[in-house]
Design goal:
two-stranded antiparallel sheet, mainly alpha, 535 residues
Amino acid sequence: MNLRTLIVLRRLSQTAFVLLFLVLFVQARLSSDTMVDYSLTLENAQPFTIRSPVDFFFRIDPLLRLTTLLAGKLWLAGIGWAIGLMAMTAILGRVFCGFICPFGTIHHAASLGIRSNCDAAIPPRSRLIKYAFLAAILVSGILGLELAGILDPLCLLFRSLALSIFPGIGLMLKSAFDAMAASDIKWINLASYAAEMIISPIFGYGYPAYQTGGLIGLLFLALVWLNRFSPRFWCRVLCPLGALLGLIGRYTRLVLLTDEARCNACGLCQSRCPSAARSGKTPASWNPSECLYCLTCMNVCPQEAISLRVAQAGAPPKFAPTRRAMLSGMVAGLFLPAVGRVDGRLFAASDPALIRPPGSLDEIDFLAVCARCGLCMKVCPTNAINPAWGEAGLAGFWTPVIIPKQGYCELSCTLCSQLCPTGAIRPITPEEKKTKPIRIGSASIDRGRCLPWSGNGPCIVCEEVCPTSPKAIVFDTVDTTGADGEPLKLKLPKIRLQHCVGCGICENKCPISGSAAVHVIAAGETRNPRHGLLL
């Protein structure tokens, strides 16, 4: 197969997998019909389901599957995809990085036009960093803390797009549409509504926002920007999945052969290689563990001396990761779980704000497998699930928590439990959620801010929206005197904790601005008896 055909094949493959990733990403939401007729869906008791395989890229991710197996001892359904990818890598090398990985394709595109000498831009030994990251992730996984999702390229890409990039683009577009809707020109006015109906299924209905979304977006943009400094910086220096695949594909049969009779040792293949797969100008310097199969060396070779063949590879160069790099990673892997738990939150009463999605495992088991990928946050129809900031301590950074003031847990919805790719949120049914019931917290009333309790006027919103049966919020009716001296009959709300599931809709819909008059805290959650209301 000639070079032009190989390059066309690579570009088609990269484009196809990026489009597949984006299509599945957009499909990770309720259908437009359900969102438009949301109230009708609830009345008709339609199940909340997403039929598309939106977790496909998480299923084929061998790093995520391996760390879930190490940390959580969970043999997840669909692990065959990851095993198949590892088998492919053993035969064909890091073809996944060059032809399939959507995050790698983004870095490849961002590197276009960069002609700098890669070795001069960053030291060759910098590639050892990704092996240190891999060692740290595996060791911390063995010790019960899942960290793969923070740096895994597929998790990082999904989290960045879901929690920052797409919401940010949607916010800018809708602001423009709002300005158009205020126009006195009729066709502009109508066009704004039509455009909003088109872009809402892609960028989200309303104005979704996420805690730490700005930080996640800045990190993503910084990683992409680094390609202007050194092509495919992420793949070469930081990617732990690339390090794992590099070790698996060390003895690949898909090799880049150099015709020694043609090679004039000009060094172009070495200087232009974005992954530093060539440590010298000689043909024997090619390292299959580092090669991304981007075909740059073949393309720049003036002698056309390099070809891609299926053949028996020669002895690969000495294993690149030094003992110092690997030991540094392993020590970090030992250190990070201890640092994450030193605040004592795992073994004490839960933080009041640590409200996990329904179906979440016990906190220790949850942190052992949660990948922080953002899929549960993306599919949540009410924008209730957000990445944790300080609620779960250092070990739980960016893990999912429910913020009632921002959104509430819909009683009929179990999307987060259906789609969690690592089992951190176990599958539950709407019937189990309602009838068992599964409690994620409990509500309380701030009488100083509640309108009826403070004597400032009647209000029955919290009781009206309470979805449980029987209702968890009931009234005591009292006769009193209003501020104008007139007789006033007030309904004073009170919480029946035995019926409260902590869904948060009472806090979310409370009309008191600023801090609501109803608060939901994690105490009383059923996933852990130690987190009961009474210690």
